[in-house]
Amino acid sequence: MTTEDGVRLWASRSGAGRPVVFCHGGPGLWDTLDDVAALLTGLATVHRWDQRGCGRSQRSGPYSMARTVADLEAVRRHFGLEDMVLLGHSWGAQLGLRYALDHPRRVLGLVYVSGTGIDPGTTWNAGYSRNLRSALGGDVARWEELKGRRERTPAQDREFSVLQWSADFADPSRARQHAERMATPWLEVNFACNAAINAEDKREWGTAALRDRCEELRVPVLIVDGEHDIRPRSSVDSLERALPHARRVVLPGAGHLPWTEDPEGFRTAVGAFLSS
């Protein structure tokens, strides 16, 4: 599909049922939500897309929250959806929330998976950093070496990402396997996109104005957390309190990608929300 400013985005539609549009994590990554789409077979018509500059979409900016929200609106129009449920993971949960705040009449519901809430990043970054290093264990030295390099080859970018993503799973015996699967095929992280949007988030997230807007949102929201996500789940508490129509499900034994380690629990929670 093509946005109104001429940027080509990869998008797909599959399944049958209530329309659900995915917002993948990042920023700067691509849609790795194949397993989520499979879990929702029979429950939803799933719409997936790679965000601007990412994965199979055209490598072109500008990169900002507002621009990405506009691209999500372009996806809705492209598929001819009057309204939709949004399912956002990690950074994509933030994107889904922002779209719902800007376009509440277009959103039937929001599934907010493994997001980091509306507080400033300073309230949870230190805990995340400690948990990340702890989860990496014996790989932390190699991760730090790759992280500190001013330039990396594509192979080193992939190695760095696989190491970091491996910390997102609760079961260390299978963590590297799960991370390798996420990185296959390797579509290259857009670090420029990541830096630009994260810098914007640091300026705008955690404001009283954002909290006030959340308190006024009438869209139903399902918050889904993995119990062992290395991003402290307390970061989401204030969002849960602010939203008038939110309920929260915590999946035991799961990390940042809870559908991977508790697929049945994830399908049950999301399925109940879609049918309500």
Automatic annotation (TrEMBL):
<dbReference type="GO" id="GO:0016787">
    <property type="term" value="F:hydrolase activity"/>
</dbReference>
<dbReference type="InterPro" id="IPR002410">
    <property type="entry name" value="Peptidase_S33"/>
</dbReference>
<dbReference type="InterPro" id="IPR000073">
    <property type="entry name" value="AB_hydrolase_1"/>
</dbReference>
<keyword id="KW-0378">Hydrolase</keyword>
<feature type="domain" description="AB hydrolase-1">
    <location>
        <begin position="19"/>
        <end position="258"/>
    </location>
</feature>
<dbReference type="InterPro" id="IPR050266">
    <property type="entry name" value="AB_hydrolase_sf"/>
</dbReference>
<protein>
    <submittedName>
        <fullName>Alpha/beta fold hydrolase</fullName>
    </submittedName>
</protein>
<dbReference type="InterPro" id="IPR029058">
    <property type="entry name" value="AB_hydrolase_fold"/>
</dbReference>
<dbReference type="Pfam" id="PF00561">
    <property type="entry name" value="Abhydrolase_1"/>
</dbReference>
<comment type="similarity">
    <text>Belongs to the peptidase S33 family.</text>
</comment>
